[in-house]
Amino acid sequence: MSQSTMIHHSPAWQRLVAHAADMRDVHLTSLFTEHSGRHARFTRRGAGLTLDLSKHRWRDETLAMLLELAREADLERAIARLQNGERVNLSEDRPALHTALRLPPEARLVVEGEDVVPDVHDTLARMQAMVEKCHAGQWRGATGRPITDVVNLGVGGSDLGPLMVTHALADYRPRDVHQVDIHFASTMDGSQLADYLTRFNPATTLFVLSSKSFTTIDTLSNASTARDWLMTRLADGGQDTEMGELVMRQHFVGVSAKPEKMSEWGIDPRHQLRFWEWVGGRYSLWGAIGLPIALAVGMENFRELLAGAHEMDRHFRDTPLEDNLPVLLALAGIWNVNFLDVRAHSILPYDGRLEYFASYLEQLEMESNGKSVTNDGEITPYSTCPVLWGQLGPNAQHAFYQLLHQGTQAVECDFIAPVRRYDRVEDPATRAHLKAQHRLTLANCIAQSRVLMLGDEALPSDAPRPSHKRYRGNQPSTTLLLDRLTPRTLGSLIALYEHKVFVQATIWDINPFDQWGVELGKQIATETEQILASRRGAEALDDSSRGLLDVVWQAQDAT
Ligand code: F6P
C-alpha cells in the first residue's frame, strides 16, 4: 500500500478528523442529556457479556463513520481470512490460528491442504490423559510418591495466560481428586523458583517447561536450575544414572512447537505436548500451553473455557459489524487514540479473581499492536496501540485513580465485573456477607465510571468548591459486565480482547502476530552477559553501560 492509499487518506478517516474537531469540546454529560436511552443505544450483548459503550465521547454518527472506516479497511474479509487459516501473519508468512484451538471435534478446517482439527483434539486428549493421571494420584515422581506440586516454567505467552486463567478459575478446582497445587516461575533472575526450591519436596514436584521456541533463556535458565536441584536431591548429582533417568522422565513435561529441541533437552517424548508455529505465543493458552489450567480446574472446565472462546469466535465471524462486540470495542479504542488523542488505557477489573487480567492484556495488546510500521513497511503516520496498564479496580482506587480523576492525562478505562457472585458458598451467613461485599464492589465499579464521566456534576449540590476539590470528568470508559465469571464467560472475555486487537491491527494495517521489537534487546543482552562474565570487550560499549558494569565489577571485587 502506498502512502496515498493508506487508511488515514481514506474518506472515512478524513470525515472522522473533521468530526473529531466538533466533538473535542463536547463533554460526556451533555451527550447524555442530548437523548434519553443512551445506555441502550450503545450497549450490546453476546456470549454472556454485556458491553456498555455509552460513556465514550461519541454520537450515533461517530459510530457510523467508524463502521465505514472498518469497511474501508475491508474488515469483514480480514475476519474471514483470519478464521479460514490464511497467512495473515505476513512478516512470518503463516496463519494465526488460535481460533482453531477451540473448534469442536466435529469441525473441519483445512489449512494448506490439511485438516488441523484432528491434531488439535489429539493434543487435548493427551493433555486429558496427563491431567487424569495427576488427579488420580497416579503420576509418581522418581521415588514413587504421587506428584503434589506442579511448577510451570515459562515467560510471556507461556506464563501470563495460564497464570491469569488458573487464578481466575480457582473456584473451579475439582475437590474429589488427588490435590495438586499449581505454581508459576517466569523471571530469569530465579526469584520465584528459588522460593519454591526451599519449600517444595523434590520427590513430589513436577516441572512443566513451556516455551513455544524452546530457546527462551529465561525459561531455560529456570529449567536448568530445577534439573540440577532434582538431580542433586534425588539422583546423587547424576551419579545414580538409573534415578537420573527416572527424574528426567517423571519430573518434566515439555510444551513447545519444537519437539526436537525438547528431546535434545532431555524431555521424554511421551511427556512432550506439541503446538504449532501457527499459534502465536500470546494467543496460545487454548492448547498445550494451557496444561497448568487443565491441571488446576480439570479438563471439563478447560473444555468449557474453549467453548466460551469458540462462541465469541462465531459471534465475531457471523455478527454484523454494528452489533459485533470485538469490533465495537476496537472502534471505541480507535476513536480515542486516533481522533481524540487519548493515548493511555487502563484495565480495571472489579473482581479479585481477575488479578492478572491486566498483565495478560498488557502483553496481548502491546506486544501485538505496539508497532509503527505497516504491513507494507511504511512508517505509520498515525498512533497505534496506546500505553495500556491496569490493576484490580478496588485496589487501584487507592493507588492511581487520583490521576484518572484529577491528573492531566486523558485515559480510556475498561471497567470489568461479574453481575453475580458467591451463589455456591454453602454456609448461609458467610454467603450473605460475601454477597454484600460483591454488592459493594459492583456499586464502586458503577460509581467510579460515573464520576470519571460526570466529574463535579455527579455531586448532588452545586455549591462552590475550591479548585483542588474539583473534578473535570469527561474520561471515556467502557463497562463490561459478565453474567458470572465461569470458565465459559472467561473464554468469551479473553477471545473478545484477542479479536479487538485484530480489528485495530486491521484498521492500522499492522501485523499483530509478530514481535520483532523484542529481538534486538535479547541479542544485546547475550553480548552484555559475555562482557559481564569475562570482563572483556566493555571498551566497545557506550559510557553509561561501561560505568554500570564498573559498578558491578567493583562490588564483586569488594566481596
Ligand atoms: O520475547 C517475547 C516472546 O517471544 C513472547 O512473544 C513469548 O510469549 C515469550 O517471548 C516466550 O516465548 P517462548 O514461548 O518461545 O519461550
From TrEMBL:
Signal peptide (residue range): none
Pfam families: PGI (PF00342)
Function as written in the Swiss-Prot or TrEMBL entry: Catalyzes the reversible isomerization of glucose-6-phosphate to fructose-6-phosphate.
Active site, UniProt feature: E367, H398, K522
Family of this protein: Belongs to the GPI family.
SUPFAM superfamilies: SIS domain (SSF53697)
InterPro entries: G6P_Isomerase (IPR001672), G6P_Isomerase_C (IPR023096), Phosphoglucose_isomerase_CS (IPR018189), SIS_dom_sf (IPR046348), SIS_PGI_1 (IPR035476), SIS_PGI_2 (IPR035482)
Protein name per UniProt: Glucose-6-phosphate isomerase
Biological process, per Gene Ontology: gluconeogenesis; glucose 6-phosphate metabolic process; glycolytic process
Keywords: Cytoplasm, Gluconeogenesis, Glycolysis, Isomerase
Record GO terms (molecular function): carbohydrate derivative binding; glucose-6-phosphate isomerase activity; monosaccharide binding
Class of enzymatic activity (EC top level): isomerase
Gene Ontology CC terms, in alphabetical order: cytosol
Pathway: Carbohydrate degradation; glycolysis; D-glyceraldehyde 3-phosphate and glycerone phosphate from D-glucose: step 2/4; Carbohydrate biosynthesis; gluconeogenesis
Coiled coil: none
Source domain of life: Bacteria
Subcellular location: Cytoplasm
EC number of the protein: 5.3.1.9
Catalytic reaction annotation: alpha-D-glucose 6-phosphate = beta-D-fructose 6-phosphate
Primary location class: cytoplasm
